Amino acid sequence: MSSLNGKSFNPVMNRRSVIASAAGLGVAGILAGCSSEGGDSGSASANSNGGEFKIGAIGPKTGAAASYGLSVCNGVELGCKDFSNDTYNFVSKSEDDVADGEKSVTAFNTLADWGMQALVGPTTTGASVAVAEVAAQDPQIFMITPSASSTDVTKGKTNVFQVCFTDPNQGVNAAKFLAANYGDEKFVLFYNSGDSYSSGIADAFKEQAAESKLEIVDEETFKDDSQTSFTNQLTKAKEKGATMIFAPIYYTPASVLLKNASDMGYEVKMMGCDGMDGILGVEGFDTSLAEGLLLMTPFSADDESNADFVKAYKDAYGKTPDQFAADAYDGVHAVAEALKEAGLPADVDPTEASSKLAEAMTKITVKGLTGTLTWNDKGEVQKDPTAYVIKDGKYVQA
Amino acid sequence: MNFLKNKQTRSDFITYGLVIVAFLVVFFMQANHMIPRMFAGQLVPITAYIVMAISLNLVVGVAGDLSLGHAGFMSIGAYTGIVTAVSMQAAGAPQTLALVVSIVVGAVFAAIAGFIIGIPVLRLRGDYLAIVTLAFGEIIKEVVTCLIVGVDAHGLHVVFNLRGNATVNDLHLMDNGIAIIKGAQGASGVSTYSTFVAGFVLIMIALVVVLNLVRSRTGRAIEAVRDNRIAAESVGISVTKYRMIAFVVSAALAGAAGALFGGNFSQLSATKFDFNTSILILVFVVLGGLGNMRGSVIAAAVLTILPEALREFSDYRMLVYAIVLILVMICTNSPQIQGFIARFKPKKKGEAEANV
Predict the structure, then answer these.
(1) pTM for this model (two decimals)
(2) Letter string b/e over residues A2-40, b meaning 16 or more CB atoms within 10 A of that residue's CB
(3) Residue (of A322, A250, A246) closest to A279 by Cα position
(4) What's the pLDDT score for residue A228?
(5) d(CA B120, CA A318)
(6) DSSP letter (8 states) at residue A385
(7) d(CA B90, CA B98)
(8) For chain B, domain boundaries
């Protein structure tokens, strides 16, 4: 531009036009980033005479994590339709938070203005921590998050609950499951040391394994930037005589791990956690390698007992439900059960509902899609972990 | 009331008055629960964004330097502020004191960062300055992502997670210790402490500092450097010195705004302060008018509320928001519309006399 060679006639105007065009670019960027935000307005269910009870849902409906948020919002909507009865007519409304704490708090307040009596959300952990803090402040609103797994979400709050396991809980459950079913194997613990989900589970697994007397012969780690080959780690594990891998990792590196083990002719069993759900959908991955893989995940769309839910979900949204949808559905189920337990009227004040529901939550038992659920006074869920094994390309209960 | 005869002074006092009246109205309505929660919950972020817009306007509008990394200073202020406030509260300090000290600490750290970055950056001009500030904002983001900080009875523990294998456990906190910043998760699970009143006070401080700086001898020197660098140098004005003054003051205010913003959320990850946030604030400044502090205040407030107020339009929300932005840009620049508005303004006495 001209101001660089000193021949500018009016440097001020020039600089200003540069600034203005940069700002214009920014507006375009904001536009492109958020193509379709916004909330569905209240969708009432038709076949109910009960009074309206308003349930809010929050999740990223746009942006990188949109698939999770849409699943949660759909799960809540379907749950509200299914659990409405003569006493309560559940009405849902969902708001987009783009997985951002600030936006999520505003979404929460918008729902509170709508008259929300209980919140099933938010979807992502960071947003949930921010919203939980607001929900626990006066005037309180009852909150149950389907999928935020950090202990920070519920810590120190009486009216906040979780449907999914916390990260440490998953590690403990996995160790107990393995001790009961595969007590004689020699284990190698394999995890992503740069990821809080993976290392959180691994740390808790190690502690419980020592207590359950599992034999861990080796421990191997990797990081995000080195997950293209695990041959080194597998060779070491093989030398130490490991017969089973416990890998609390996401499905993409898990597919590489299985491929490497098969290539080097290492006959080894493997078990993962809910992050491994999705391994059958990895592009270019030979799913026959995943045969016999064990994974602890709360929900399987292939399971007979979930067939009704899967069909209803497919009919309504044209997609197979994932664990986020199932968790959200169970969240609505829990609210419905807690309402019944507390004997609250449908037009109950949100603040009163918050304390009464929180009390009732520790007493109820929910037979949901993700197991039989009860809650402790910290707001963490207690349920039997469900383990699936992959057989003929399908999840079968182990 | 003699001092009000000066046109600039009068204009400045209208700005102060506007902010004070707006604050009193909102505060009164909030106390009587007359405003919806959606709006009430945004009051602190709005005040933080207003201070950000004022601070960026000092660099972009007054000093004429394009900075694309202003969210980086906000980030520094936010995290140093959170660490300060949580440590003080753990030691038993009252909330208000913790808030005030955290804002001061946030401002000081951001000013130091602004000074260090300013040394190389302010020797550049135009596009180069924009590129370097942009890179700086990204660097801050990466640095905070590597940071793990906790506090216990022994004091602060800091781990710099360069190789990606450190966790909160590596802080070796005592049983009652609090982990404040947890690497990629950012600050998570900390209690909030910012208040709307503190936000208002900060806006007033920012306005007084910036407006008085602009009207001072230093401010005229800064504007001289902006308008004609060569002429300014030829009369003995140190170009780097005056650009540096504007840059550091701006960084300090951004840091203070960051500390206020950080104290309003229980969870704050480093990615919040990315390029988009820097651009958002630049949009406030440009739409409010370069060098026009009153415009920045109004633009920041309106443009923060607008996308949330448009939730009614659901899927078309951001489209409507963008159209509003474009209309504002066109309308305020159109001579016809400006002439139309000017017809309703009473002719000012001073101008009329000057024309004679």
Answers:
(1) 0.82
(2) ebeeeeeeebeebbbebbbebbeebbeebeeebeebbbb
(3) A250
(4) 86
(5) 56
(6) -
(7) 10
(8) 2-347
- CATH code for A40-165+307-382? 3.40.50.2300
| CA angle, B153 then B158 then B161, to 5° | 145
Count of beta carbons in the 10 Å neighbourhood of residue B330: 10
User: Contact at 8 Å (CB) between B158 and B87?
Assistant: no
User: Is the interface score ipTM higher than 0.90?
Assistant: no
Question: What is the reported pLDDT for A28?
Answer: 46
Q: H-helix or E-strand containing B70?
A: helix B70-90
d(CA B75, CA B270): 7
- Closest-CA residue of A relative to B268 is A101
Residue B271's Cα: distance from chain center in Å? Answer: 17
Please confirm whether the linkage preceding A139 is cis (ω < 30° from 0).
Answer: yes
- Say whether A101 and B282 touch across the interface (CB within 8 A): no
Nearest to B132 by CA among B69, B225, B57: B69
The CATH 3.40.50.2300 domain(s) of chain A lie at: 40-165+307-382, 168-297
| A25·B279 Cβ contact <8 A | yes
Which one of A8, A97, A133, A197 would you mutate to disrupt binding with B, by most B Cβ within 10 Å of its Cβ?
A133
Across the interface, do A30 and B322 touch by the CB < 8 Å criterion?
A: yes
Q: What is the mean pLDDT of residues A283-295?
A: 87
Number of H helices, E strands in chain B: 15, 5
Closest by Cα among A360, A367, A348 to A144: A360
Q: Best of B169, B181, B266 to disrupt the A interface by mutation (most A CBs within 10 Å)?
A: B266
- Partners of B169 on chain A (C-beta within 8 Å) are 203
Which CATH number describes the domain made up of A168-297?
A: 3.40.50.2300
- Quickly list H helices, A212-343: 231-239, 251-263, 307-317, 323-342
Partnered with residue B157 across adjacent β-strands are B150
Q: What does the alpha-carbon distance between residue A126 and residue B7 come to, in Å, rounded to a whole number?
A: 49
Mean pLDDT, residues A41-60: 71
Residue B215 has pLDDT above 70, yes or no: yes
